[in-house]
UniProtKB/TrEMBL annotation:
Organism: Bradyrhizobium denitrificans
Pfam families: 4HBT
Protein's name according to its UniProt entry: PaaI family thioesterase
Domain (Thioesterase): residue spans on this chain: 53-124
InterPro entries: HotDog_dom_sf (IPR029069), Thioestr_dom (IPR006683)
C-alpha cells in the first residue's frame, strides 16, 4: 500500500485493525464508525489479483467474513465467535487499486447465534453480497 493511499484512508477517518495470521497477509484491514455503523475496508493492491488481473474472490469473501464476525462480536458483546455458515454472491468484479468497503448489518441475535448481512462495495458499485451465521462460543 502506498503512503498516499494510507494517508487518504487516515484522513477519511479510517484506522488500521490490529491483525495477525492470514488477514495480516492480505491487509491492512481498515475500520471506522460512520453515523453509528461499523465499516471495514481493504485497499486492493497487486497482491490481491487473480489470473484475470481482477480482485481475487477469496479476498472479497475474507473481507466480508471478517467484517461480519467483528460486528457480531461487537453487537453480542461476546469475544469468542465462530462462523458456522457464510454465503457469498458475487455481483461484479473488483479492480486492483479500488477500496473495497463492507458495511455489516445485524439481522438478529439469539442466545447462541448472530445473523448478519453485508454488501461489499467499490465506490458506488456493489461487488458482492454476503450473509453469515456466527456461533457465540463460551469464554475459555
Amino acid at each position: 500500500m502506498t503512503k498516499s493511499a494510507a494517508a487518504k484512508m487516515t484522513s477519511d477517518g479510517w484506522d488500521i485493525v490490529d491483525t495477525s495470521g492470514f488477514l495480516h497477509l492480505i491487509g491492512p484491514l481498515w475500520q471506522r464508525v460512520l453515523d453509528g455503523a461499523h465499516e471495514y475496508a481493504i485497499v486492493t493492491e497487486d497482491k490481491h489479483h487473480n489470473r484475470r488481473g481482477l480482485v481475487q474472490g477469496g479476498v472479497i469473501m475474507t473481507l466480508a467474513d471478517r467484517s461480519c464476525g467483528m460486528t457480531a462480536r461487537y453487537a453480542a458483546g461476546k469475544e469468542h465467535m465462530a462462523t458456522v455458515q457464510f454465503d457469498t454472491h458475487f455481483v461484479e468484479a473488483g479492480k486492483i487499486g479500488e477500496t473495497l468497503v463492507s458495511r455489516p448489518h445485524v439481522v438478529r441475535i439469539t442466545r447462541s447465534l448472530v445473523f448478519i448481512t453485508t454488501e461489499v462495495t467499490a465506490a458506488s458499485r456493489v461487488i458482492a453480497m454476503a450473509s453469515g451465521v456466527f456461533k457465540i462460543l463460551k469464554s475459555e
